[in-house]
UniProtKB/TrEMBL annotation:
Protein name: Phosphoglycerate kinase
Gene3D superfamilies in UniProt: Phosphoglycerate kinase, N-terminal domain
KW Protein biosynthesis (keyword) present: no
Residues where (2R)-3-phosphoglycerate binds: 36, 118, 151
GO cellular component entries: cytosol
EC number: 2.7.2.3
Any one of the GO BP annotations: gluconeogenesis
A Pfam family assignment: PGK
Length: 396
């Protein structure tokens, strides 16, 4: 999968429509976390240093297809202004003659931030004439919004068929890291998959089972796996509809010679509560009236040994109810084990990222994927429309 490198292009004097993910949290008209904006700055700086004129567009929240003041990009504009040295202006419109004029009035090195793309329902509908209107704002299209690449919207897909299209630095990094992981991992390749439900991870498990050497399972989903092997799980989280799928995954791992591990001991609680009565059980099975809340010390040891010898690691989903301190150890220890290993490590999913931060080891991780749904779909083996349209352009 080859993506065009924007570093190699001449963008001097060109108007570029840069699709970003500035979908940041806003409270009382103020941006409370600027991480997503900051992550796009390298792409913005590179393009400006090349003498480009930038028209920047993003979605923010979930407006219902029309303008809603609480989803205006105005607060984002104010936060963004403080983060860049470039001259930025904001226009309270997305498309139309006024926006086209403003884009044409830009000098090299200047930025125009447009209003929330989702103030037009045509954005999510990927409607043709809206795509054309967006395309009128620029000569070149660059997408740096990996988090929105699993959606075929006008600004993530449609416009790429009209203008020369490229991936931004952030987008390319995500694709190269995630793509490299599943296409040509250095072995042993270890996937650690946790989180609450088998149902939301079943597709990724099915895709990974053909690619990994070790599959370590934790979190609430582990109990459906245990139950599928007739292990008593008390009142732990259980998805009856996925019991047979879990059974089949264990079988498939056996047939293919993959080391699939499920927890052999647990931290259990009498109820789902931070102050619940809790204890460690040195067995696979859980008694009636108790629920599994975290992996136990033997499981941590065993998982840590596998992680230590890994050359490639993918982690998605916590090992226990890590939001509650009593049940955070398994997740934190896995984060620490990953940070100590010499493997190339990729961590995705909001909870695993939070755990990496809680363990204070974010700087030891090769790549923290911010893609959310997009990275999960990518790892499930799906073609992301927002990526496919960039690759097709390159080859075509
Ligand atoms: P997910 O969004 O599917 O990655 O799941 C993350 C959630 O799984 C977190 O909020 C955890 O609290 C929850 N979780 C992890 N382990 C367990 C468990 N043993 N029982 C119930 N929920 C769990």
């Amino acid at each position: 999968m080859k993506l065009p490198r924007i570093e190699d292009q001449n963008f001097h004097g060109k108007r570029i429509f840069l699709r970003v993910d500035f979908n940041v949290p806003v409270e009382d008209g103020k941006v409370t976390d600027t991480t997503r904006i900051e992550k796009t700055l390298p792409t913005i700086d590179l393009l400006l240093s090349k003498g480009a004129k930038l028209v920047i567009g993003s979605h923010l929240g979930r407006p219902k297809g029309g303008p809603e003041p609480k989803y205006s990009m105005k607060p984002v504009y104010e936060a963004f202004q403080k983060l860049t040295k470039a001259k930025v202006s904001f226009i309270e419109k997305v498309v139309g003659s006024e926006v086209v004029s403003a884009s044409k009035a830009l000098a090299e090195g200047e930025i125009l931030l447009i209003e929330n793309l989702r103030f037009h329902k045509e954005e999510e509908e990927n409607e043709k004439s809206f795509c054309k209107q967006l395309a009128e704002l620029a000569d070149v299209y660059i997408n740096d919004a990996f988090g929105a690449a699993h959606r075929a919207h006008a600004s993530t897909e449609g416009i790429a068929h009209i203008l020369p299209a490229f991936a931004g630095l952030l987008m390319r990094k995500e694709i190269e890291m995630l793509g490299g992981l599943v296409m040509r991992p250095e072995r042993p390749f270890v996937a650690i998959i946790g989180g609450s439900k088998v149902s939301s991870k079943i597709a990724i498990l099915k895709n990974l089972i053909d690619k990994v050497d070790h599959l370590l399972i934790g979190g609430g989903m582990a109990y459906t796996f245990l139950r599928s092997r007739a292990v008593p799980i008390g009142k732990s989280l259980f998805e009856k509809d996925f019991e047979s799928e879990a059974f089949q995954i264990i079988d498939r791992a056996g047939v293919q010679g993959i080391d699939l591990q499920i927890p052999v001991d647990h931290i259990i609680a009498d109820q789902f509560d931070a102050n619940a009565k809790s204890k460690t059980v040195d067995k696979m099975g859980i008694l009636d009236g108790w629920m599994g809340m975290d992996i136990g010390p033997k499981t941590i040891d065993s998982y840590a040994k596998v992680i230590k010898n890994a050359k490639t690691i993918l982690w998605n989903g916590p090992m226990g109810v890590f939001e509650m301190d009593k049940f955070a150890k398994g997740t934190i220890e896995v984060a620490k084990a990953i940070s100590k290993s010499k493997a190339k490590s990729v961590v995705g999913g909001g909870d695993s990222i939070a755990a990496i931060n809680k363990a204070g080891v974010a700087d030891k991780i090769t790549h923290i994927s911010t893609g959310g749904g997009a990275s999960l779909e990518f790892l499930e083996g799906k073609t992301l429309p927002g990526v496919a349209c960039l690759i097709a352009k390159e080859e075509g």
